[in-house]
Design a protein that fits this description.
Oligomer: heterodimer
Order of helices and strands of chain A: HHHHHEHEHHHHH
Shape of chain A: globular
Radius of gyration of chain A: 22 Å
Helix content of chain B: over 70%
CATH architecture of the largest domain in chain B: Orthogonal Bundle
Radius of gyration of chain B: 17 Å
Number of helices of chain B: 7
Largest sheet of chain B: none
Structural class of chain B: mainly alpha
Largest sheet of chain A: 2 strands, antiparallel
Number of domains of chain B: 2
Number of strands of chain B: 0
Order of helices and strands of chain B: HHHHHHH
CATH topology of the largest domain in chain B: Arc Repressor Mutant, subunit A
Strand content of chain A: under 5%
Largest interface: A-B, 43 and 52 residues
Helix content of chain A: 55-70%
Number of domains of chain A: 1
């Protein structure tokens, strides 16, 4: 038998099946791209193989690691085991060091203002380019085993994601003030979020949709400089390019 | 080739590969995400001397197989013909075309998924059998054997369906 041994396979049927190649819609590509950015962000945050188990906020259905992803307790158990192993190896390899105190941002769940329509949006647009400016919750001293957790920590990823989902839903129903407000709240609570790339992309699109042309274009240019390989870049540029 | 470039260039290929492997429309988006996430994790393993699409198809096949195992009690039906492009100029032509497409899809569904993967890669994507063997991690003889049986299953399914419709 050879590769070309197909004389008895109906060529018309094969031709039909070859032609049966329907492109996915732009909206589908955008959604998958967005989810991938989150998954890849979670991978980068938690590192290597563990990251593959930590893709939060997705509805995916395949693969054994997705079982862990679908179950929060499984995820946290995996993280705890990984952290314990890492800490053990670190302790074995290094001499004991005095406890370090680092200053991190505490998510200000209680102190954060309610999501409203106009005011936070303008604050967000002013502060986003410089991720260290204003709008931060008060810093508190937290004793930690290791390096600073300046992105809110893995445990907050689900909360960050939930807040982004609020913004995304608002954007989907063309409620741009609510989108900007939710994003502003996100920025206020998680200024250095690992999901910042997605937040910024959505923010630019919402600004463009509300007619804040110059601001959106400037932010899009900075987005391109900051995330030149971003999967979200085409949609960001498209939104800015569509402004009349 | 960067992951970003692969995503942009091959999204539709992955999407349609999953569809041809029997993933229903309602789950295509989730599984396409899963395929690309696995590709992202394994991109460093890609041998650039080999063709890209069979390598991508290998991920699609494994994701679709996992999915099928977990939902083996479901009947899988490929997307209806109305979702495809509309190449025919008249209503009658469209009807005939749609009927023929349904027949072809039904026959494709009649092939067991491991053999269907080989069949799709060879007959629809034009990959050589050695490439398929490499992409799916199969011995060469097994790949030839699966292709042979897949063709028989395809022919049998076509004949069965035509008989059922009174065409033969």
């Amino acid at each position: 038998m050879t590769d070309s041994d197909q004389e008895s396979v109906d060529p018309e049927m094969l031709a039909l099946l070859r032609a049966d190649f329907a492109p996915a819609s732009a909206a589908v590509k955008e959604r998958v791209s967005s989810r991938l950015a989150r998954s890849v962000g979670a991978l980068a945050l938690s590192g290597g193989a563990l990251g593959a188990h930590a893709g939060l906020g997705t509805r995916s259905t395949a693969g054994p690691w997705l079982a862990l992803r679908a179950h929060p307790l499984g995820f946290f158990a995996s993280f705890a085991v990984g952290a314990a192993c890492g800490a053990g190896l670190y302790a074995a390899a290094r001499r004991p060091a005095p406890e370090r105190v680092v200053y991190v941002d505490r998510p200000a769940w209680q102190a954060a203002p309610a999501v409203s329509s106009a005011e936070p949006a303008s604050k967000n647009s002013e502060t986003l380019p410089a991720l260290t400016q204003s709008a931060r919750a008060p810093s508190v001293a937290v004793p930690l085993l290791g390096a600073s957790v300046d992105r809110g920590g893995i445990a907050s990823l689900a909360e960050q994601q939930a807040l982004l989902d609020v913004a995304r839903s608002a954007f989907a129903r063309s409620d741009y003030p609510a989108t900007l407000a939710a994003l502003a709240t996100h920025f206020q609570r998680y200024p250095k979020s690992v999901l910042g790339e997605e937040r910024e992309a959505l923010d630019i699109k919402a600004l463009a949709a509300t007619g804040r042309t110059d601001e959106a274009k400037a932010r899009a240019a900075r987005f391109k400089a900051q995330f030149p390989q971003s999967l979200l870049l085409p949609s960001v540029q498209d939104s800015v390019g569509l402004i009349p | 080739m960067s992951f970003n470039a692969i995503f942009r260039a091959e999204f539709d290929y992955v999407w349609n590969s999953l569809r041809r492997l029997g993933v229903p429309l309602r789950d295509l988006e989730d599984l396409t995400h899963d395929v690309f996430f696995r590709i992202y994790e394994r991109l460093a393993d890609y041998d650039r001397a080999r063709p890209l699409r069979p390598w991508l198809f290998g991920f699609s096949f494994r994701v679709a197989s996992d999915y099928r195992r977990r939902f083996s009690n479901r009947r899988e039906v490929l997307s209806p013909a109305s979702e495809t492009s509309d190449p025919a100029p008249t209503a009658l032509d469209r009807l005939v075309q749609a009927e023929a497409m349904t027949l072809a899809r039904t026959a494709l569904e009649g092939i067991e998924i491991e053999r269907r993967a080989v069949f799709i890669l060879h007959e629809l994507d034009g990959s050589s059998v050695p490439e398929i063997a490499n992409a799916l991690g199969l011995p060469l003889n097994t790949t030839y054997s699966r292709l042979r049986v897949a063709r028989e299953e395809f022919r049998a399914a076509l004949q069965r369906e035509r008989l059922r419709r009174g065409e033969a």
